[in-house]
Amino acid sequence: MRIFLCQHNPIVGALEYNFQKIITGYKKGVEAGADLVVFPELFLLGYPPQDLVEKREFRDAVKNYISKIASQTNSTGLLFGAITEDDDNIGTDIHNSAILCFDGKVQFVQHKTLIPNYDVFDEMRYFDSAKKVNVFEFREERLGISICEDIWNDADYWYKRRYTKDPVNDLIKQGATILINISASPYSYGKRTNRKDMLSSLCRNDNLPLIYCCCVAGQTELIFDGASMCFDNNGKLVKLGKAFSEDFILFDTEQSYEEIRICESNFEEEVYNALVYGLRDYCKKEGFDKVVLGLSGGIDSALVTCIAVDALGKESVKVLLLPSKYSSDGSIKDSIQLCNNLNIDYVQIPIQGIVDASLNQFSSSGLSYNSITEENIQARIRGNLLMAYSNSYGNLLLSTGNKSELAVGYTTMYGDMCGGISVIGDVYKTDVYRLVNYINRDSEIIPKEIINKPPSAELRLNQKDQDTLPPYDILDKILRMYLEENKEEFEISDLIGNADLVKRVLKMVDDNEFKRKQAPPVLRVSQKAFGYGRRYPIVQGWRSNNN
Protein backbone atom coordinates (compact mmCIF):
# COMPACT_ATOMS: atom_id res chain seq x y z
CA MET A 1 0.00 0.00 0.00
CA ARG A 2 1.24 3.49 -0.90
CA ILE A 3 0.65 5.80 2.07
CA PHE A 4 1.15 9.58 1.91
CA LEU A 5 1.84 11.29 5.24
CA CYS A 6 0.98 14.99 5.57
CA GLN A 7 3.07 16.30 8.44
CA HIS A 8 1.38 19.68 8.65
CA ASN A 9 0.96 22.58 11.07
CA PRO A 10 -2.61 23.29 12.20
CA ILE A 11 -3.91 26.27 14.16
CA VAL A 12 -6.10 25.44 17.16
CA GLY A 13 -9.70 26.34 16.41
CA ALA A 14 -9.05 27.59 12.88
CA LEU A 15 -11.34 25.10 11.17
CA GLU A 16 -11.37 26.70 7.72
CA TYR A 17 -7.57 27.05 7.69
CA ASN A 18 -7.08 23.44 8.80
CA PHE A 19 -9.72 22.25 6.33
CA GLN A 20 -7.81 23.87 3.47
CA LYS A 21 -4.62 22.20 4.66
CA ILE A 22 -6.34 18.82 4.60
CA ILE A 23 -7.77 19.27 1.12
CA THR A 24 -4.49 20.59 -0.30
CA GLY A 25 -2.53 17.71 1.23
CA TYR A 26 -5.07 15.17 0.04
CA LYS A 27 -4.80 16.42 -3.53
CA LYS A 28 -1.01 16.14 -3.38
CA GLY A 29 -1.35 12.59 -2.14
CA VAL A 30 -3.74 11.70 -4.95
CA GLU A 31 -1.33 13.22 -7.50
CA ALA A 32 1.50 11.15 -5.96
CA GLY A 33 -0.50 7.97 -6.59
CA ALA A 34 -1.18 7.22 -2.94
CA ASP A 35 -3.77 4.70 -1.79
CA LEU A 36 -4.19 6.48 1.54
CA VAL A 37 -3.43 10.03 2.72
CA VAL A 38 -2.85 10.49 6.47
CA PHE A 39 -3.00 13.56 8.71
CA PRO A 40 -2.18 13.82 12.44
CA GLU A 41 -4.37 13.56 15.55
CA LEU A 42 -7.16 16.15 15.92
CA PHE A 43 -5.76 17.96 12.89
CA LEU A 44 -9.07 19.54 11.92
CA LEU A 45 -9.25 21.22 15.33
CA GLY A 46 -5.58 21.65 16.19
CA TYR A 47 -4.09 20.17 19.35
CA PRO A 48 -4.84 20.72 22.18
CA PRO A 49 -8.30 22.28 21.61
CA GLN A 50 -9.00 22.43 25.37
CA ASP A 51 -12.35 23.97 26.37
CA LEU A 52 -13.26 24.78 22.77
CA VAL A 53 -14.69 21.26 22.56
CA GLU A 54 -17.22 22.14 25.27
CA LYS A 55 -18.85 24.71 22.97
CA ARG A 56 -21.81 23.26 21.07
CA GLU A 57 -21.37 25.75 18.23
CA PHE A 58 -17.77 24.65 17.78
CA ARG A 59 -18.63 20.95 17.81
CA ASP A 60 -21.40 21.49 15.25
CA ALA A 61 -18.94 23.34 13.00
CA VAL A 62 -16.47 20.44 13.28
CA LYS A 63 -19.22 18.00 12.30
CA ASN A 64 -20.05 20.07 9.23
CA TYR A 65 -16.41 20.26 8.19
CA ILE A 66 -16.04 16.48 8.50
CA SER A 67 -18.90 16.06 6.03
CA LYS A 68 -17.40 18.70 3.77
CA ILE A 69 -14.02 16.95 3.77
CA ALA A 70 -15.56 13.53 3.09
CA SER A 71 -17.53 14.90 0.13
CA GLN A 72 -14.29 15.88 -1.61
CA THR A 73 -12.72 12.43 -1.50
CA ASN A 74 -12.49 9.95 -4.36
CA SER A 75 -11.34 6.34 -4.22
CA THR A 76 -8.11 7.38 -2.45
CA GLY A 77 -8.54 7.10 1.29
CA LEU A 78 -8.16 10.08 3.63
CA LEU A 79 -7.45 9.60 7.34
CA PHE A 80 -7.41 12.56 9.71
CA GLY A 81 -8.09 13.44 13.34
CA ALA A 82 -11.19 15.22 14.62
CA ILE A 83 -13.80 14.94 17.36
CA THR A 84 -17.03 12.96 17.13
CA GLU A 85 -19.96 12.56 19.51
CA ASP A 86 -22.20 9.79 20.75
CA ASP A 87 -25.41 10.02 22.79
CA ASP A 88 -25.08 7.37 25.49
CA ASN A 89 -25.26 10.13 28.14
CA ILE A 90 -22.27 8.66 29.99
CA GLY A 91 -19.21 10.85 30.43
CA THR A 92 -18.63 13.71 28.02
CA ASP A 93 -20.10 11.96 24.94
CA ILE A 94 -17.16 13.40 22.98
CA HIS A 95 -14.41 11.31 21.39
CA ASN A 96 -10.96 12.01 20.03
CA SER A 97 -11.36 10.15 16.74
CA ALA A 98 -9.61 9.04 13.57
CA ILE A 99 -11.88 9.60 10.55
CA LEU A 100 -11.39 7.52 7.39
CA CYS A 101 -13.10 8.82 4.23
CA PHE A 102 -13.23 7.78 0.60
CA ASP A 103 -15.75 7.76 -2.26
CA GLY A 104 -17.35 10.92 -0.88
CA LYS A 105 -18.30 9.52 2.53
CA VAL A 106 -17.05 8.83 6.02
CA GLN A 107 -16.42 5.09 5.88
CA PHE A 108 -14.92 4.32 9.27
CA VAL A 109 -14.32 5.99 12.65
CA GLN A 110 -11.95 4.78 15.33
CA HIS A 111 -12.04 6.47 18.72
CA LYS A 112 -8.99 6.88 20.95
CA THR A 113 -8.85 4.29 23.72
CA LEU A 114 -6.13 5.49 26.08
CA ILE A 115 -7.00 8.96 27.33
CA PRO A 116 -3.91 10.57 28.94
CA ASN A 117 -4.21 12.58 32.11
CA TYR A 118 -0.66 13.51 33.17
CA ASP A 119 1.89 16.25 32.62
CA VAL A 120 0.56 18.50 29.81
CA PHE A 121 -2.30 16.12 29.00
CA ASP A 122 -5.78 16.53 30.46
CA GLU A 123 -7.81 14.71 27.83
CA MET A 124 -9.96 12.93 30.44
CA ARG A 125 -11.56 16.31 31.02
CA TYR A 126 -12.91 16.27 27.47
CA PHE A 127 -12.97 12.81 25.89
CA ASP A 128 -14.51 9.41 26.53
CA SER A 129 -12.52 6.27 25.84
CA ALA A 130 -13.34 3.96 22.95
CA LYS A 131 -15.41 0.95 23.97
CA LYS A 132 -13.66 -1.22 21.36
CA VAL A 133 -11.21 -1.13 18.47
CA ASN A 134 -11.63 -2.66 15.04
CA VAL A 135 -9.46 -3.22 12.00
CA PHE A 136 -10.75 -1.87 8.70
CA GLU A 137 -10.31 -3.62 5.36
CA PHE A 138 -9.12 -1.26 2.64
CA ARG A 139 -7.31 -1.99 -0.64
CA GLU A 140 -6.71 -5.62 0.35
CA GLU A 141 -5.09 -4.61 3.64
CA ARG A 142 -6.42 -4.68 7.19
CA LEU A 143 -5.71 -1.29 8.74
CA GLY A 144 -5.04 -1.14 12.46
CA ILE A 145 -5.68 2.52 13.25
CA SER A 146 -4.74 4.04 16.60
CA ILE A 147 -4.35 7.53 18.04
CA CYS A 148 -1.22 8.81 19.78
CA GLU A 149 -1.31 7.47 23.38
CA ASP A 150 -2.86 4.20 22.19
CA ILE A 151 0.53 3.04 20.98
CA TRP A 152 2.48 4.02 24.12
CA ASN A 153 1.52 0.97 26.18
CA ASP A 154 3.35 -1.97 24.62
CA ALA A 155 3.97 -4.61 27.32
CA ASP A 156 7.09 -5.84 25.50
CA TYR A 157 8.74 -2.41 25.68
CA TRP A 158 7.65 -0.75 28.92
CA TYR A 159 8.81 -2.03 32.29
CA LYS A 160 5.82 -0.30 33.88
CA ARG A 161 2.69 0.51 31.93
CA ARG A 162 0.15 3.27 32.58
CA TYR A 163 -2.88 1.31 31.40
CA THR A 164 -4.29 -2.19 31.59
CA LYS A 165 -5.58 -2.01 28.01
CA ASP A 166 -3.42 -2.31 24.91
CA PRO A 167 -5.54 -1.28 21.91
CA VAL A 168 -2.73 -1.83 19.39
CA ASN A 169 -2.27 -5.39 20.59
CA ASP A 170 -6.02 -5.90 20.16
CA LEU A 171 -5.73 -4.68 16.56
CA ILE A 172 -2.89 -7.09 15.92
CA LYS A 173 -4.93 -9.97 17.33
CA GLN A 174 -7.72 -9.01 14.91
CA GLY A 175 -5.34 -9.54 12.00
CA ALA A 176 -4.11 -6.03 11.23
CA THR A 177 -1.63 -6.06 8.35
CA ILE A 178 -0.58 -2.38 8.64
CA LEU A 179 -0.47 -0.27 11.79
CA ILE A 180 -1.23 3.44 11.50
CA ASN A 181 -0.89 5.86 14.40
CA ILE A 182 -1.95 9.49 14.08
CA SER A 183 -0.37 11.65 16.74
CA ALA A 184 0.10 15.05 18.36
CA SER A 185 3.04 14.27 20.62
CA PRO A 186 4.65 17.28 22.35
CA TYR A 187 8.40 17.65 22.00
CA SER A 188 10.99 17.26 24.72
CA TYR A 189 14.63 16.46 24.15
CA GLY A 190 15.27 12.71 23.95
CA LYS A 191 11.65 11.81 23.28
CA ARG A 192 12.14 11.24 19.56
CA THR A 193 14.79 8.60 20.13
CA ASN A 194 12.59 6.97 22.75
CA ARG A 195 9.69 7.03 20.30
CA LYS A 196 11.79 5.43 17.56
CA ASP A 197 13.00 2.65 19.87
CA MET A 198 9.48 1.91 21.12
CA LEU A 199 7.87 1.82 17.67
CA SER A 200 10.74 -0.20 16.24
CA SER A 201 10.35 -2.79 19.00
CA LEU A 202 6.63 -3.09 18.32
CA CYS A 203 7.11 -3.61 14.56
CA ARG A 204 9.94 -6.06 15.01
CA ASN A 205 8.07 -8.19 17.54
CA ASP A 206 4.85 -8.32 15.52
CA ASN A 207 6.37 -8.34 12.03
CA LEU A 208 4.18 -5.47 10.79
CA PRO A 209 4.89 -2.17 9.00
CA LEU A 210 3.92 0.92 10.98
CA ILE A 211 3.12 4.49 9.98
CA TYR A 212 3.43 7.19 12.64
CA CYS A 213 2.13 10.60 11.51
CA CYS A 214 2.82 13.45 13.96
CA CYS A 215 1.88 17.10 13.64
CA VAL A 216 4.46 19.85 13.62
CA ALA A 217 3.44 23.03 15.41
CA GLY A 218 4.00 25.56 18.11
CA GLN A 219 0.85 25.81 20.20
CA THR A 220 1.63 28.35 22.95
CA GLU A 221 3.93 26.45 25.36
CA LEU A 222 3.84 23.17 23.48
CA ILE A 223 6.15 22.44 20.58
CA PHE A 224 5.39 19.53 18.25
CA ASP A 225 8.45 18.43 16.33
CA GLY A 226 6.93 16.44 13.47
CA ALA A 227 9.61 13.87 12.55
CA SER A 228 6.94 11.42 11.39
CA MET A 229 8.21 7.86 11.04
CA CYS A 230 7.63 4.83 8.85
CA PHE A 231 8.91 1.38 9.84
CA ASP A 232 9.13 -1.78 7.79
CA ASN A 233 8.00 -5.11 9.21
CA ASN A 234 11.50 -5.80 10.51
CA GLY A 235 11.30 -2.79 12.79
CA LYS A 236 13.69 -0.66 10.74
CA LEU A 237 13.04 3.06 10.50
CA VAL A 238 12.97 3.70 6.75
CA LYS A 239 11.24 7.08 6.40
CA LEU A 240 11.69 10.11 8.66
CA GLY A 241 9.95 13.46 8.34
CA LYS A 242 11.73 16.75 8.87
CA ALA A 243 11.98 18.07 12.41
CA PHE A 244 10.30 21.43 13.14
CA SER A 245 9.08 21.80 9.57
CA GLU A 246 6.11 20.74 7.48
CA ASP A 247 6.80 17.76 5.27
CA PHE A 248 5.27 15.15 2.97
CA ILE A 249 6.30 11.48 3.05
CA LEU A 250 5.36 8.79 0.53
CA PHE A 251 5.81 5.28 1.93
CA ASP A 252 5.20 2.09 0.01
CA THR A 253 4.81 -0.89 2.35
CA GLU A 254 5.94 -3.26 -0.44
CA GLN A 255 9.15 -1.41 -1.24
CA SER A 256 12.59 -1.84 0.35
CA TYR A 257 14.36 1.20 1.80
CA GLU A 258 17.67 1.95 3.45
CA GLU A 259 17.50 1.96 7.25
CA ILE A 260 17.68 5.31 9.04
CA ARG A 261 19.61 4.77 12.27
CA ILE A 262 19.76 8.26 13.79
CA CYS A 263 16.59 10.30 14.27
CA GLU A 264 17.74 12.95 16.76
CA SER A 265 20.70 15.29 16.85
CA ASN A 266 22.69 16.49 19.86
CA PHE A 267 21.10 18.40 22.74
CA GLU A 268 22.31 21.84 21.67
CA GLU A 269 21.14 21.62 18.06
CA GLU A 270 17.80 20.04 18.92
CA VAL A 271 16.85 22.39 21.75
CA TYR A 272 18.02 25.50 19.91
CA ASN A 273 16.00 24.57 16.82
CA ALA A 274 12.98 23.78 18.98
CA LEU A 275 13.11 27.19 20.67
CA VAL A 276 13.53 28.99 17.35
CA TYR A 277 10.57 27.11 15.88
CA GLY A 278 8.39 27.55 18.97
CA LEU A 279 8.98 31.31 19.05
CA ARG A 280 8.45 31.71 15.30
CA ASP A 281 5.17 29.79 15.32
CA TYR A 282 3.89 31.58 18.43
CA CYS A 283 4.52 34.98 16.85
CA LYS A 284 2.99 33.94 13.54
CA LYS A 285 -0.17 32.54 15.08
CA GLU A 286 -0.57 35.47 17.47
CA GLY A 287 -0.08 37.99 14.68
CA PHE A 288 3.26 39.48 15.78
CA ASP A 289 5.88 40.09 13.11
CA LYS A 290 8.26 41.97 15.43
CA VAL A 291 9.66 41.43 18.92
CA VAL A 292 11.45 43.52 21.53
CA LEU A 293 13.58 42.58 24.51
CA GLY A 294 15.90 44.14 27.04
CA LEU A 295 19.58 43.38 26.42
CA SER A 296 21.48 43.56 29.69
CA GLY A 297 24.95 42.36 28.80
CA GLY A 298 24.20 39.01 30.40
CA ILE A 299 24.22 35.60 28.79
CA ASP A 300 20.45 34.93 29.04
CA SER A 301 19.30 37.99 27.11
CA ALA A 302 22.11 37.41 24.60
CA LEU A 303 20.84 33.89 23.93
CA VAL A 304 17.22 35.06 23.55
CA THR A 305 18.35 37.77 21.13
CA CYS A 306 20.04 35.18 18.91
CA ILE A 307 16.99 32.91 19.03
CA ALA A 308 14.75 35.83 18.07
CA VAL A 309 16.96 36.79 15.12
CA ASP A 310 16.98 33.20 13.83
CA ALA A 311 13.22 32.89 14.35
CA LEU A 312 12.07 36.16 12.80
CA GLY A 313 14.99 37.81 11.02
CA LYS A 314 17.21 40.68 12.12
CA GLU A 315 14.86 43.36 10.81
CA SER A 316 12.12 42.13 13.16
CA VAL A 317 14.12 42.26 16.41
CA LYS A 318 14.51 45.42 18.49
CA VAL A 319 16.55 45.57 21.69
CA LEU A 320 16.61 48.21 24.41
CA LEU A 321 19.70 48.86 26.53
CA LEU A 322 18.49 50.12 29.91
CA PRO A 323 21.54 50.79 32.08
CA SER A 324 21.46 52.03 35.67
CA LYS A 325 24.39 53.25 37.78
CA TYR A 326 25.11 49.60 38.63
CA SER A 327 25.45 48.54 35.01
CA SER A 328 29.10 48.03 34.15
CA ASP A 329 30.66 49.73 31.16
CA GLY A 330 31.51 46.26 29.90
CA SER A 331 27.85 45.19 29.91
CA ILE A 332 26.86 48.13 27.72
CA LYS A 333 29.85 47.66 25.42
CA ASP A 334 29.26 43.90 25.13
CA SER A 335 25.57 44.43 24.35
CA ILE A 336 26.40 46.89 21.59
CA GLN A 337 28.96 44.46 20.18
CA LEU A 338 26.33 41.68 20.07
CA CYS A 339 23.91 43.99 18.26
CA ASN A 340 26.62 44.85 15.73
CA ASN A 341 27.48 41.16 15.25
CA LEU A 342 23.81 40.39 14.56
CA ASN A 343 23.27 43.61 12.60
CA ILE A 344 20.20 44.57 14.64
CA ASP A 345 18.97 47.94 15.87
CA TYR A 346 19.14 49.01 19.50
CA VAL A 347 18.06 51.99 21.59
CA GLN A 348 19.80 53.00 24.80
CA ILE A 349 17.63 54.50 27.54
CA PRO A 350 19.45 55.18 30.83
CA ILE A 351 17.09 54.55 33.75
CA GLN A 352 18.95 56.01 36.73
CA GLY A 353 17.06 59.31 36.62
CA ILE A 354 13.74 57.46 36.73
CA VAL A 355 15.02 55.24 39.57
CA ASP A 356 16.15 58.23 41.62
CA ALA A 357 12.92 60.11 41.00
CA SER A 358 10.81 57.11 41.99
CA LEU A 359 12.74 56.47 45.21
CA ASN A 360 12.75 60.17 46.10
CA GLN A 361 9.01 60.38 45.53
CA PHE A 362 8.54 57.34 47.74
CA SER A 363 10.71 58.65 50.58
CA SER A 364 9.35 62.21 50.37
CA SER A 365 5.98 60.78 51.31
CA GLY A 366 7.40 59.64 54.63
CA LEU A 367 8.01 56.04 53.54
CA SER A 368 11.27 54.14 53.83
CA TYR A 369 12.69 51.55 51.46
CA ASN A 370 15.34 48.84 51.69
CA SER A 371 17.95 47.49 49.29
CA ILE A 372 15.57 44.91 47.82
CA THR A 373 13.14 47.71 46.95
CA GLU A 374 15.92 49.58 45.14
CA GLU A 375 16.88 46.46 43.20
CA ASN A 376 13.34 45.55 42.20
CA ILE A 377 12.33 49.05 41.20
CA GLN A 378 15.12 49.03 38.61
CA ALA A 379 13.79 45.80 37.11
CA ARG A 380 10.22 47.15 37.13
CA ILE A 381 11.21 50.43 35.48
CA ARG A 382 12.90 48.39 32.76
CA GLY A 383 9.76 46.28 32.40
CA ASN A 384 7.67 49.45 32.20
CA LEU A 385 9.81 50.90 29.42
CA LEU A 386 9.88 47.65 27.48
CA MET A 387 6.09 47.41 27.69
CA ALA A 388 5.87 51.06 26.61
CA TYR A 389 7.87 50.19 23.51
CA SER A 390 5.67 47.15 22.92
CA ASN A 391 2.53 49.29 23.20
CA SER A 392 3.91 52.02 20.94
CA TYR A 393 5.37 49.90 18.16
CA GLY A 394 3.43 46.63 18.35
CA ASN A 395 6.44 44.42 19.13
CA LEU A 396 5.88 41.35 21.27
CA LEU A 397 7.97 41.60 24.45
CA LEU A 398 10.13 38.52 25.10
CA SER A 399 10.91 37.43 28.64
CA THR A 400 14.55 36.38 28.98
CA GLY A 401 14.68 34.53 32.32
CA ASN A 402 16.02 30.96 32.49
CA LYS A 403 14.57 27.91 34.26
CA SER A 404 17.00 28.06 37.19
CA GLU A 405 15.94 31.62 38.02
CA LEU A 406 12.25 30.86 37.62
CA ALA A 407 12.59 27.82 39.85
CA VAL A 408 14.03 29.64 42.86
CA GLY A 409 12.31 32.99 42.36
CA TYR A 410 15.45 34.89 41.41
CA THR A 411 13.21 37.12 39.31
CA THR A 412 11.17 40.29 39.72
CA MET A 413 7.43 40.24 39.19
CA TYR A 414 6.36 42.99 36.77
CA GLY A 415 10.03 43.50 35.98
CA ASP A 416 12.20 40.97 34.17
CA MET A 417 9.21 38.59 34.21
CA CYS A 418 7.28 40.89 31.86
CA GLY A 419 6.61 39.49 28.41
CA GLY A 420 4.25 37.67 26.10
CA ILE A 421 6.32 34.48 25.96
CA SER A 422 9.20 33.09 28.02
CA VAL A 423 11.70 31.86 25.46
CA ILE A 424 14.25 30.06 27.68
CA GLY A 425 12.14 29.52 30.80
CA ASP A 426 12.61 25.75 30.35
CA VAL A 427 16.39 25.97 29.92
CA TYR A 428 18.61 25.63 33.00
CA LYS A 429 21.42 28.15 33.43
CA THR A 430 24.11 25.54 32.79
CA ASP A 431 22.33 24.60 29.55
CA VAL A 432 22.22 28.27 28.54
CA TYR A 433 26.01 28.11 28.31
CA ARG A 434 25.78 24.98 26.16
CA LEU A 435 23.41 26.71 23.73
CA VAL A 436 25.57 29.83 23.59
CA ASN A 437 28.65 27.76 22.78
CA TYR A 438 26.60 26.07 20.04
CA ILE A 439 25.77 29.50 18.57
CA ASN A 440 29.48 30.38 18.62
CA ARG A 441 30.58 27.04 17.14
CA ASP A 442 31.83 28.58 13.88
CA SER A 443 32.46 32.22 14.81
CA GLU A 444 32.11 34.53 17.79
CA ILE A 445 28.58 35.89 17.58
CA ILE A 446 27.99 36.31 21.31
CA PRO A 447 31.07 38.13 22.65
CA LYS A 448 33.29 35.98 24.86
CA GLU A 449 33.15 38.70 27.51
CA ILE A 450 29.43 37.98 27.98
CA ILE A 451 30.14 34.26 28.33
CA ASN A 452 33.09 34.61 30.70
CA LYS A 453 31.77 37.22 33.11
CA PRO A 454 30.31 35.95 36.42
CA PRO A 455 26.49 35.98 36.23
CA SER A 456 25.01 39.12 37.79
CA ALA A 457 21.70 40.96 37.78
CA GLU A 458 23.70 44.22 38.26
CA LEU A 459 21.09 45.70 40.57
CA ARG A 460 23.58 46.64 43.32
CA LEU A 461 27.30 47.32 43.57
CA ASN A 462 29.50 44.31 42.72
CA GLN A 463 26.49 41.98 42.79
CA LYS A 464 26.94 38.35 41.72
CA ASP A 465 24.24 35.67 41.39
CA GLN A 466 26.27 33.44 43.68
CA ASP A 467 25.84 35.95 46.52
CA THR A 468 22.28 34.62 46.74
CA LEU A 469 22.29 31.27 44.97
CA PRO A 470 24.45 28.14 45.06
CA PRO A 471 26.82 27.70 42.11
CA TYR A 472 24.68 26.97 39.06
CA ASP A 473 26.19 23.55 38.40
CA ILE A 474 25.08 22.42 41.86
CA LEU A 475 21.78 24.30 41.77
CA ASP A 476 20.82 22.79 38.42
CA LYS A 477 21.58 19.25 39.60
CA ILE A 478 19.24 19.78 42.54
CA LEU A 479 16.53 21.35 40.37
CA ARG A 480 16.72 18.65 37.72
CA MET A 481 16.29 15.91 40.32
CA TYR A 482 13.43 17.71 42.06
CA LEU A 483 11.50 19.02 39.07
CA GLU A 484 12.04 16.42 36.35
CA GLU A 485 13.01 13.24 38.16
CA ASN A 486 10.58 13.85 41.03
CA LYS A 487 13.11 12.74 43.64
CA GLU A 488 12.44 13.22 47.34
CA GLU A 489 14.44 15.60 49.51
CA PHE A 490 16.38 12.83 51.25
CA GLU A 491 17.30 11.23 47.90
CA ILE A 492 18.64 14.52 46.57
CA SER A 493 20.52 15.19 49.82
CA ASP A 494 22.20 11.80 49.64
CA LEU A 495 23.37 12.50 46.10
CA ILE A 496 24.43 16.12 46.68
CA GLY A 497 25.92 15.54 50.12
CA ASN A 498 24.60 18.77 51.65
CA ALA A 499 21.19 18.38 53.30
CA ASP A 500 20.94 22.02 54.44
CA LEU A 501 21.61 23.33 50.94
CA VAL A 502 19.05 20.98 49.40
CA LYS A 503 16.44 21.99 51.98
CA ARG A 504 17.07 25.68 51.23
CA VAL A 505 16.79 25.22 47.46
CA LEU A 506 13.59 23.15 47.62
CA LYS A 507 12.02 25.71 49.94
CA MET A 508 12.86 28.45 47.43
CA VAL A 509 11.19 26.43 44.67
CA ASP A 510 8.04 25.85 46.73
CA ASP A 511 7.83 29.40 48.09
CA ASN A 512 7.95 30.99 44.63
CA GLU A 513 5.04 29.17 43.04
CA PHE A 514 3.05 32.42 43.24
CA LYS A 515 5.57 34.15 40.99
CA ARG A 516 5.54 31.43 38.36
CA LYS A 517 1.74 31.47 38.21
CA GLN A 518 2.05 35.05 36.93
CA ALA A 519 4.85 34.37 34.47
CA PRO A 520 4.29 34.34 30.70
CA PRO A 521 3.91 30.98 28.91
CA VAL A 522 7.16 29.00 28.79
CA LEU A 523 8.31 27.21 25.63
CA ARG A 524 8.59 23.54 26.66
CA VAL A 525 11.70 21.55 25.70
CA SER A 526 12.12 19.29 28.76
CA GLN A 527 10.05 16.52 30.26
CA LYS A 528 8.69 18.88 32.95
CA ALA A 529 8.39 22.57 32.24
CA PHE A 530 6.87 25.27 34.42
CA GLY A 531 3.32 26.18 33.45
CA TYR A 532 0.74 23.95 31.81
CA GLY A 533 2.34 20.64 32.76
CA ARG A 534 3.29 21.38 36.39
CA ARG A 535 0.47 22.07 38.80
CA TYR A 536 1.37 22.81 42.40
CA PRO A 537 -0.70 24.84 44.88
CA ILE A 538 0.38 28.37 45.73
CA VAL A 539 -1.02 28.25 49.26
CA GLN A 540 0.37 25.11 50.89
CA GLY A 541 2.34 24.14 53.99
CA TRP A 542 4.05 20.91 53.04
CA ARG A 543 7.67 22.03 53.17
CA SER A 544 7.25 24.26 56.26
CA ASN A 545 5.08 21.85 58.27
CA ASN A 546 6.95 18.63 57.52
CA ASN A 547 10.58 19.69 57.72
Mean pLDDT: 94
- The CATH class designation of the largest domain is Alpha Beta
Task: Output the structural class.
Answer: alpha/beta
Return the domain count: 2
Q: Please, what is the oligomeric state?
A: single chain
Give the uncertain stretches in residue-range form.
none
Query: Biggest sheet, open or closed, and with what strands and sense?
Result: 6 strands, mixed
Report on the structure:
This protein is α/β, with parallel strands linked by helices and 547 residues long. The chain has 2 domains: 263 residues, Nitrilase/N-carbamoyl-D-aminoacid amidohydrolase (4-Layer Sandwich), CATH 3.60.110; 275 residues, HUPs (Rossmann fold, 3-Layer(aba) Sandwich). The protein is built from 17 helices and 19 strands. The strands form 4 sheets. Strands 5-4-3-2-1-14 form a 6-stranded mixed sheet. A 6-stranded mixed sheet has the order 6-7-8-9-12-13, covered by helices on one side. It has a 5-stranded parallel sheet with strand order 17-16-15-18-19, sandwiched between helices. Helix 2 links the parallel strand 2 and strand 3. Helix 5 packs across helix 11. The mean pLDDT is 94.
Question: Key features?
Answer:
alpha/beta, 6-stranded mixed beta sheet, 2 domains, Nitrilase/N-carbamoyl-D-aminoacid amidohydrolase, 547 residues, 19 strands
Layout of helices and strands:
Elements: E1 2-7, H1 15-31, E2 36-38, H2 56-71, E3 77-85, E4 94-102, E5 105-111, E6 136-138, E7 141-147, H3 167-173, E8 178-183, H4 191-206, E9 210-214, E10 216-219, E11 222-225, E12 229-231, E13 237-240, E14 247-252, H5 267-286, E15 291-294, H6 299-312, E16 317-321, H7 329-342, E17 345-348, H8 352-364, H9 371-393, E18 396-399, H10 403-408, E19 421-422, H11 429-439, H12 448-452, H13 472-484, H14 489-496, H15 499-511, H16 513-516, H17 542-545
Parallel strand pairs: 1-2, 2-3, 7-8, 8-9, 15-16, 15-18, 16-17, 18-19
Antiparallel strand pairs: 1-14, 3-4, 4-5, 6-7, 9-12, 10-11, 12-13
Helix pairs in contact: 1-2, 5-6, 5-11, 6-11, 8-9, 14-15
